[in-house]
Design brief:
By secondary structure, this protein is mainly beta. The chain has a domain of 57 residues. The protein has no helices and five strands. Strands 1, 2, 3, 4 and 5 form a five-stranded antiparallel sheet that branches. The site of zinc ion (ZN) has 8 residues, from loops.
């Protein structure tokens, strides 16, 4: 059966997307490989999105550090001050 002219299909796309912001490099000890290596610091914050457009943040931002040697990531509890 065909749809009438008054009937329409409405598609709503909602979800959560993550915004990322690079904070630079920092020398830190790695808990996985056991060496003091440079880590890439990144600030991440999930946002509610409507049709793939971020509308408002869902959580407060967190800072993650990724070891440049082994790739292990962990949350930073003492993030560096950003300007
Ligand atoms: Zn490592």
């Amino acid at each position: 059966m065909l749809l009438g002219l008054c009937e329409a299909v409405m598609l709503i796309i909602i979800g959560v997307s993550e915004r990322k912001k690079g904070l630079g490099q920092e020398l830190r000890p790695c808990s996985h490989c056991g060496r003091e290596t440079f880590h890439t610091l990144e600030q991440r914050q999930p946002w509610f999105s409507f049709f793939f457009i971020p509308i408002f943040p869902v959580e407060s931002p967190s800072v993650m550090a990724r070891c440049n040697l082994c790739g292990r990531e962990r949350r930073v509890l003492d993030p560096p001050l950003t300007t």
